[in-house]
C-alpha cells in the first residue's frame, strides 16, 4: 500500500507569519496592466507555400490578401501604431487604419493582418496600394487603405499567442465592427478545391489554409499554408535593356534570385508597367549605376544591358519556371520597400 505523505505546514513556527514570494516590479510604461505584459513587437506567423490546399476538419480557409503584412498595436497609453512585417512604424501612412483602431474601444491589443487597397471589383491590389502611397517609394498618407484583420494576439492584458486559432478568431470577429477601415478576414466554409477554383475565377492571388488548433508561432512552420493562383515573389533588379520607344526608356528589367547565398539571373520582365511608374523607376535606376564593367550576376546572354547595383527589389507575378530556371510569363507589380517586406526569392528553398 502506497504511503501517504503529509503536507508541509503553512507556518514554520507558531509565531512567524506566512510569506509569499516578492512581486516583480511592474513595467512603468504599463501601470494598469495586471496580467500579461504587452509585447513591443511580435515576429509574424508566415504561411508555407503549397501547390494544393489541405483537407480535413482541422483546417480553415481564407482569402490571400495582396498587400503589405502589418500589425496594429493599441498601447495602454492610448497610442496606436501600425507596424510592418519587419517592425517599421508606418502609422502616418495609414491614418484611416489608425482611426479605425481607436474606435475599437479596447485598452490594449495587437491585431495581425494585411494592409490593402481594393479595385472596383473588390479585389485587393498591391499596385493600387503603392499608388495610394504616391507610387514607388511613396510615403504620402493612403486614405484608401484598409486593414484586413485575421488574428488577435493580445487583448486587454491577455496574451493569446498560446491559445488555439479558433478561439483567437472568435474573439477577433466580435471585436471588429466592420464599418471602419478595419475589416475582419472571413473564413469560408467550402470544399478547399472549390474555394481555390473560385479564387482563380475571380482573379484573386490565392487562398490561405490555417490549422484551427494551432498556437501562434512566429516563422514559417506549416501551421499556415498559402496556395497561389498566380505566383508572386520578390526579385532583385540587376539591370535593364534600353529602349527608346518604351515607357521609362527601358524594354525590360533583368531580375535575380538567391541561390546558395549568391544572386543569379532568373530572366526578365517587360510587361505590367504604367508610364508614370516606369518613368519614376528609371530615375531611381539612374541613381544606382554599376561602377564595374562586369554584371553583378553571372550572365552569358547577348542582350544589351545597362547593369546596376542590385538594390531595388521588384514584386513580380509569373506563371511558373522554364527548365533552366527562368521566369515564365512574368509581369511587374511594383517595388517592394528596401527596408521592409522584401524577402528575395530563394531558388534553393522555393521561398
From TrEMBL:
Give its E.C. classification number.
Answer: 6.5.1.1
One Gene Ontology MF term: ligase activity
Arranged from A to Z, the UniProt key words for this protein are: Ligase, Plasmid
Broad EC category: ligase
Ranges where the record places region Disordered? 1-37
Tell me where on the tree of life, at the top rank, the source sits.
Answer: Bacteria
Note the InterPro entries from the entry: ATP-dep_DNA_ligase, DNA_ligase_ATP-dep_C, DNA_ligase_ATP-dep_cent, LigD_ligase_dom, NA-bd_OB-fold
PROSITE patterns found in the cross-reference section: DNA_LIGASE_A3
List residues of the ATP-dependent DNA ligase family profile domain. Answer: 138-228
Family per similarity comment: Belongs to the ATP-dependent DNA ligase family.
* Name of the protein: DNA ligase (ATP)
Q: What is the lineage of its organism?
A: Bacteria, Pseudomonadati, Pseudomonadota, Alphaproteobacteria, Hyphomicrobiales
